[in-house]
Specification:
Elements (H helix, E strand, L loop, with lengths): L1 H14 L9 H32 L11 E5 L2 E5 L1 H24 L8 H20 L3 H19 L6 H29 L7 H4 L6 H19 L8 H7 L2 H11 L1 H15 L4 H24 L3 H28 L3 H36 L10 H4 L1 H14 L7 H18 L3 H33 L16 H19 L2 H12 L10 H6 L16 H20 L25 H4 L1 H6 L1 H4 L2 E9 L6 E8 L3 H21 L7 H20 L1
Antiparallel strand pairs: 1-2, 3-4
Helix pairs in contact: 1-2, 1-4, 2-3, 2-4, 2-20, 3-4, 3-10, 3-14, 3-19, 3-20, 4-5, 5-6, 6-8, 6-9, 8-11, 9-10, 9-13, 10-14, 12-13, 12-18, 13-14, 13-17, 13-18, 14-16, 14-17, 14-19, 14-20, 16-18, 16-19, 17-18
Length: about 675
């Protein structure tokens, strides 16, 4: 608990750097960013120590068994195992991304660098407070601070029109979510003695009001997570924000939604209602598939990663819904695996998405563009960045030996158990649909990141912007390198990570069995009769097999009996040019045509001038893929609101005499109503 309070104090000192004199702007940046990294490290240490204590039985019996337990008036802090898991994510991401920001954020010198650094500390502190809140008042206050600070960070480059538009769209959407969460808290408090979480957990809310509380909470947290169709703010806000801010928003802030949903489901509402799990599962599956599909179509690097966040949050919510259904059907052990998958994939997604947003920032820093169509061949200019990006892309594609596979593998195990053990045809049909959508999602994600990495880092340059590119400074490379290293380490040695996150569940009020969960997930052979040996994936064994096969192929291909001669690709007697490479648009064309009914692309061909009577004309081809929900849902609502506002102008003309007339009519109406 001391470390958490100390971390919050250090964040506060870091926030005060925005008040330093302008002549000390760079010093304020260094001081504030180092303080943010140190405070995040303290949060990480406190959370890891707590979770390890749950495993080793070293927690003091004299306290309540909480990581934090403090109260002051109506406000209180209370952090348990569920909080600790997300504090690990926050502390790890905050410390590493802060190191990256030491060099990256210097580009904003003379453009609000002190404010950026101070707000960075406030952003991290607000998320720590959300995770440690012990009552609804503290939670909503911290949630609002988080929303306000993130809005200011997204709007940092407010001289750009698109940035301002994205920031205010984000502000409107996040406050709609806040309103929904507030409604859920009020409904629960109406059947409890106070707004304290301990009292809310003993609420007596029943029937339609309980369903309404779940619906409000789910809508609020789904909006913050960016689940479709509530995602419209996310693909716009992430490209607008500075890259290290995007990394923290995607890597940590989106996980606040998972934490909040778990808090409501585990503690306040329960999992007895079958429909709750179905809703969460289906919403997650649809978001995962559509997020991956739109990511494959996008051409802005950060927009690609934003839609990828929609995909991965969908996978996390789908695993959460699967766990709820397993609890409801009486399979607590495998429900534990599903919820552990939620936590493991949340941390893994934080690592790999932070890495790729930092990589996108490095590419922007080096070339001045986020448009993948203008890049190419950057692996020669930025070899370290290219290597780190490859690790992140492999992990987001859920390839072996990366952490991205672990959570998804555990989720798939849970889905298989859900289909095999429930025994109903309806549940098996649901699992079949889940496997189809998850399979399509995985294939789309692989294609998406093959496209992203190949177009940006391989091949030849597509514009002169690449010529000025060079490798990044030390701290930017250090941040990306640490993320890549952790992704590989957790991919090869997953047991400590799985065990740590399983302890987070044991420290909560979940009544789930905890018999050797490490073995349930990762031992290699066995059956459901013996759950301690249920899995069929052993990463070390697979790594050894891969190394043997790779060595054998290398010997076979490079042996003395194999003669290899390299020639240029035949191109009608000419050397291929860089214009003949695959473009990002061309790479994704087969998928675009396959899902044309969903994507509904807008195409435009402009003929510039005729070069020859027989050999065609020079033309310009433009392709725009609108967001389905934006076009079909939000734009009509926007037009309706504008139309209603235009109608209201008829009664609001600024004429004082007209307003006096309205008052007199209102008084007459009140008098008539009183008489009646």
């Amino acid at each position: 608990m001391f470390l958490l309070f100390a971390a919050l104090a250090v964040y506060g000192l870091g926030a005060l750097t925005m008040l330093w004199p302008k002549r000390l702007e760079l010093g304020a940046h260094y001081a504030g960013t180092i303080l943010a990294a140190a405070a995040s490290g303290m949060v990480l240490a406190a959370a890891v120590a707590y979770l390890c204590g749950l495993s080793w039985g070293t927690l003091s019996p004299t306290v309540s068994g909480l990581l934090a337990d403090w109260a002051w008036g109506r406000y209180s802090l209370a952090a348990d195992g569920w909080s600790a898991a997300f504090l690990v994510i926050t502390g790890l991401a905050g410390s590493i991304i802060s190191l990256y920001a030491l060099d990256y954020a210097k580009a904003y010198r003379g453009n609000g660098l002190r404010a950026l650094t101070g707000l960075w500390n406030l952003f991290l502190a607000s998320m720590v407070l959300v995770l440690t809140a012990g009552d609804a008042f503290t939670f909503m206050l911290a949630w609002e601070v988080m929303a306000l600070v993130s809005f200011l960070l997204v709007n940092h480059e407010n001289r750009k029109k698109d940035t301002v538009k994205a920031a205010y769209q984000y502000m409107v959407m996040t406050h709609l979510g806040t309103a929904a969460i507030l409604i859920a808290f009020y409904l629960l408090a109406s059947a409890a003695s106070s707004f304290a979480f301990a009292d809310l957990a003993r609420n007596t809310l029943e029937g339609p009001w309980r369903h309404a509380a779940f619906a409000a909470a789910f809508i609020g947290f789904a909006l913050k997570a960016g689940l479709m169709p509530l995602h419209v703010w996310l693909p716009n806000a992430h490209p607008a924000a500075p890259s290290h801010v995007s990394a923290l928003m995607s890597g940590v802030m989106l996980k606040m939604a998972v934490y909040g949903l778990g808090r409501f489901v585990f503690y306040f509402l329960g999992m007895e209602v079958f429909a709750y799990g179905v809703i969460v599962l289906l919403a997650g599956l649809v978001s995962a598939f559509l997020g991956a599909l739109y990511a494959t179509m996008a051409k802005d690097m950060k927009r690609i990663l934003a839609y990828s966040s929609v995909e991965n949050m969908g996978i996390i919510f789908a695993a959460f819904g699967c766990g709820m259904l397993l609890v409801q059907t009486g399979h607590g052990l495998m429900a534990l695996v599903a919820f552990a998958a939620v936590l493991v994939h949340s941390l893994s997604h934080s690592l790999m998405k932070a890495l790729l947003f930092m990589s996108a920032g490095a590419v922007m820093h080096a070339t001045g563009t986020k448009n993948v169509e203008l890049l190419g061949g950057l692996a020669k200019k930025m070899p370290y960045t290219a290597a780190f990006t490859l690790v992140g892309a492999m992990s987001l594609s859920s390839l072996p030996f990366t952490s991205g596979l672990i959570g998804e593998w555990m989720a798939l195990q849970s889905f298989m158990t859900l289909g095999w053990q429930t025994g109903t045809q309806e549940m098996r049909l649901l699992v079949i649909v889940a496997f189809i959508l998850l399979g399509l999602t995985g294939a789309l994600a692989l294609g998406c990141f093959v496209r992203l990495y190949g177009i940006v880092f391989l091949g030849r340059r597509r514009s002169a912007l690449v010529l000025k590119a060079k490798e990044m400074p030390f701290f930017m490379l250090l941040g990306m390198g640490l993320e890549a290293l952790l992704i590989v380490l957790f991919g090869i040695f997953p047991v400590p990570l799985v065990g740590l996150m399983s302890n987070a569940l044991s420290g909560s009020t979940l009544s789930l069995p905890l018999t050797n969960v490490w073995a349930v997930v990762w031992n290699g052979t066995g059956s459901l009769v013996n759950p301690a040996a249920f899995s069929c994936y052993n990463p070390l064994l697979l790594l050894l097999l891969t190394l043997i096969v790779t060595a054998a192929l290398a010997v076979a291909l490079e042996g003395p009996g194999m003669l290899v001669r390299r020639e240029v690709t035949w191109n009608c007697g000419t050397v291929p040019t860089r214009r003949q490479q695959y473009t990002a648009t061309g790479f994704s064309k087969p998928l675009r045509r396959a899902f044309d009914m969903i994507l509904r692309p807008h195409r435009e061909r402009v003929f510039l001038h005729k070069e020859h009577a027989y050999f065609g004309r020079r033309l310009q081809y433009k392709l725009f893929i609108p967001d389905l929900f934006t076009e079909q849902l939000y734009v009509p609502v926007q037009r309706l609101m504008i139309g209603m506002s235009s109608w209201l102008r008829l009664v609001q003309q600024g004429n004082v005499r007209l307003y006096i007339g309205y008052i007199m009519l209102a008084m007459v109406a009140v008098l008539i109503w009183g008489v009646m």
